[in-house]
Amino acid sequence: MPITLPASLSEAQARSLDKELTPREIVAELDKYIIGQKAAKKAVAIALRNRYRRQKLPPELADEVAPKNILMIGPTGVGKTEISRRLARLTSSPFLKIEASKFTEVGYVGRDVESMIRDLVQIAVSLIKSEKIEEILPKAERNVEEKLLDLLLPPPPRKPGTPPEDDQLQFRETREKLRRQLQTGLLDDRMVDIEVKERFSSPFEIFSSQGVEEIGIQIQEIFPGLGGRTKRRKVKLKEAREYLIEDEQQRLIDMDQINRQAVERVEHSGIIFLDEIDKISGRESGHGPEVSREGVQRDLLPIIEGTTVNTRSGLVKTDHILFIGAGAFHVTKPADLIPEMQGRFPIRVELDSLDKNDFIRILTEPENALLKQYQALMATEGVKIKFAKEAVEEIADIAEKVNEVNENIGARRLHTVMEKVMEDISFSAPNIRKKNITIDRAYVHKQLKDIVEDEDLSRFIL
């Protein structure tokens, strides 16, 4: 059944509805990359679907429907960030991860927490700009082709006594011949003269990287000449095409439109992942770190509840941004957050710790599984790697044991264990004669023997 869109929806929002998935489809997509954690996947799937539902409501009612922010509780390395990041990718939503504990550091308490919204808007601008560049690429390439033909064959001066039609006919025929050669790459090494914009560092660029953008001033827009200068250069046609396409894309892009769409996408689709939220939980005791933690919570509260933030792309309402809080909550518990903050995270899900069986599945099942990554990397050197079943079990078993003895960092342990397993093969791959290698349990045990036996060494390396 087709969806009837209310008049209040913009074109960008209407397009986003076409990509909306049902909760089951969202979970199925997340299952391709993340093992287990069904409760967390279900919660984020519902949150995402509720955005779709809200956009179908009448405007006056849609404004009243607040997002159901989620609090993920679980140890590090179990998939909290990855679930949120993959969720954002499903719908091209602007996504920002920020550690809530950063605001407790010296000099950060009372900091302008609105900067996270400005950062999210810039992410949205980059996202939409990339989409527009891809969209206009065919037109940019056509325009550049004409410019290159003009460089290769400028219109000829009219010969006295020659009918204009004859001049034009000959010119067009030669131009079309050059066009065919240009399209097939026959002219790639031909030298041409073009104007190239030089980019150079300036104090303004340094200041910009340190946060001048937060006050909404773009030095580049006020003094456009500071960004670079043009000079004529003689380059190969292949290189000239790259320069010209980049310039043509920038010319065709409407930055005002991109800024408007970025604000709109942040307001309706933005996701902010507040990591380590447990480290800012604590009750006020009159002095000490608890006071600063509660202060940070109160600084964050207006953003999460809904306010308007001034960014260089325009005013942004945070009322419908989805916030996902995450923390291990080993020392504290969600009830230690101030009541107002607790109320803004009504959905709470606990993520399970990972065991050996989970590690085996993580190594082999996802589309981006670690074993597949290493096999692909070695294949670039012509080396074909096969992992025996018992080798995978041994890797998972050792990862679990090291997590038990040292700090439990969940699936992240697999990265360090696998790197150690593959170290010698990765080093020797360009010169290796045996191009088909099977990694068995014995090889894994040999590579990791010292780490398993020496607890201090495992703590240092892994």
Could you characterize what this model shows?
- The protein has a five-stranded parallel beta sheet, with helices on both faces.
- Helices cover 53% and strands 12% of the residues.
- A hairpin with a 2-residue loop joins β6 and β7.
- The longest helix is centred in the first third of the chain and has 38 residues.
- The N terminus is likely disordered.
- It has 19 helices and eleven strands.
- With 462 residues, it is an alpha/beta fold.
Task: Describe the secondary-structure layout.
Layout: H1 11-18, H2 23-31, H3 38-55, H4 59-62, E1 70-73, H5 80-90, E2 95-99, H6 115-152, H7 164-183, E3 191-198, H8 203-209, H9 219-222, E4 229-236, H10 237-252, H11 255-269, E5 271-275, H12 289-305, E6 308-311, E7 314-317, E8 322-327, H13 339-343, E9 347-350, H14 356-364, H15 370-379, E10 384-387, H16 389-405, H17 412-428, E11 436-439, H18 441-453, H19 455-461
Parallel strand pairs: 1-8, 1-9, 2-5, 5-8, 10-11
Antiparallel strand pairs: 3-4, 6-7
Proportion of strand residues: 5-15%
Radius of gyration over C-alpha positions, nearest whole angstrom: 28 Å
Number of strands: 11
Shape: flat
Helix and strand composition category: alpha/beta
Sequence stretches where pLDDT stays below 50 over 5 or more residues: 1-18, 200-226
Specify the biggest β-sheet. 5 strands, parallel
User: How far apart are the termini?
Assistant: 54 Å
Mean pLDDT: 80
| Tally of contiguous helical segments | 19
**Topology pattern, helix = H, strand = E:** HHHHEHEHHEHHEHHEHEEEHEHHEHHEHH
Q: What percentage of residues falls in helices of 4 or more residues?
A: 40-55%
